[in-house]
Structures are given as structure tokens and as C-alpha cells.
């Protein structure tokens, strides 16, 4: 796991913003085939299957996966496609925490949370002694 300083993470935000926008677009494109892909998968279990636009779907999945791999290759953890929510592992007071950022925010990280806090970013980065509330884990 890559550990970021605040400065390193902030420097990556423009690149991460670009990748996230492309991930959202690719996810939307793949999602258009959700029903057809489910039907094909169900039919495949019965010895049949296939999709009219199967090659297009496969290409879209490949592009989507490549974008996820690109983001993960930076050491950034994607938490929510739709919100464009990501975490940057960092050290704070000798323990690993997650600096969080999402599309629509500025060019600097403002929030962090403990690793076991779920998808909640509720502690301002400038509040070193505050502890975030533990979130109910997202079932997805």
C-alpha cells in the first residue's frame, strides 16, 4: 500500500479528477448493458448465452477495467463510482488513516477518516486531535 503525504496526494488531484471523470463515463456506458449481460450470464449457465452487442460490451468492460487499474496504480483507493469518492492512505500520529476527496471538491484535500470508519469523511484535515465517528459500513 502506498502511503501519501498530504502534498503528494494534493499534487495528484488533477490527474485523479481526470481519471475519475473517465471512470464515471465508462461505468455509465457499461451499465447500459446490465440487463442484457445478466440475461446472457443466466443463459450461459444453461448452456447458451451471448449478446447482440457482446463485442462492444467486452470492449467497454476492458476500458473500464483499464481505468480502474490506472487509478489503483497510483495508489489511490476508489470508494464510490457515482460520487467519485477516493481515499489516499496516509500516516497521522503514527497510524494509517485515509485522506478522502471526491469529485466536485477543490484542489486540496480537506478531510480524513480512520481506516475502519467506512465511507465517512467527517474530520477536517486541520483537526489533528479530533476522532471521526465510526460509520455504518456500506453493504455494497
Percent helix range: 40-55%
Portion in beta strands: 15-25%
Shape estimate: elongated
Report Rg: 18 Å
Order of helices and strands: HHHEEEEE
Query: What structural category do the secondary elements indicate?
Result: alpha+beta
Q: In terms of quaternary structure, what is this?
A: single chain
Number of domain modules: 1
Question: Strands of the largest sheet, in order across it?
Answer: 1-2-3-4-5
Main pleated sheet: 5 strands, antiparallel
What's the average pLDDT? 82
Which regions are unreliable across 5 or more consecutive residues at pLDDT < 50?
125-140
How many DSSP H or I helices? 3
Secondary structure tally: strands: 5
Cα separation of the termini: 22 Å
Task: Set out the fold topology.
Blueprint: H1 6-31, H2 34-45, H3 54-73, E1 77-80, E2 85-92, E3 95-102, E4 111-114, E5 123-124
Helix pairs in contact: 1-3
Structure characterization notes:
The chain contains three helices and five strands. The chain is α+β, with helices and mostly antiparallel strands. It has one domain. The chain has a five-stranded antiparallel β-sheet with strand order 1-2-3-4-5. Helix 1 packs antiparallel against helix 3.
Amino acid at each position: 500500500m502506498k502511503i501519501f503525504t498530504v502534498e503528494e496526494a494534493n499534487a495528484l488531484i488533477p490527474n485523479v479528477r481526470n481519471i475519475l471523470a473517465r471512470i464515471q463515463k465508462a461505468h455509465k456506458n457499461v451499465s447500459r448493458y446490465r440487463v442484457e449481460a445478466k440475461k446472457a450470464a443466466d443463459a450461459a449457465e444453461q448452456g447458451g448465452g451471448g449478446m447482440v452487442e457482446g463485442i462492444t460490451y467486452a470492449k467497454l468492460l476492458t476500458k473500464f477495467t483499464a481505468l480502474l487499474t490506472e487509478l489503483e496504480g497510483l495508489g489511490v483507493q476508489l470508494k464510490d463510482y457515482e460520487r467519485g469518492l477516493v481515499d489516499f492512505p496516509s500516516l497521522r500520529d503514527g497510524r494509517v488513516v485515509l485522506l478522502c476527496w471526491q469529485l466536485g471538491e477543490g484542489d486540496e484535500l480537506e478531510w480524513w477518516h480512520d481506516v475502519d470508519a467506512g465511507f465517512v469523511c467527517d474530520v477536517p484535515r486541520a483537526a489533528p486531535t479530533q476522532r471521526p465517528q465510526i460509520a455504518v459500513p456500506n453493504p455494497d
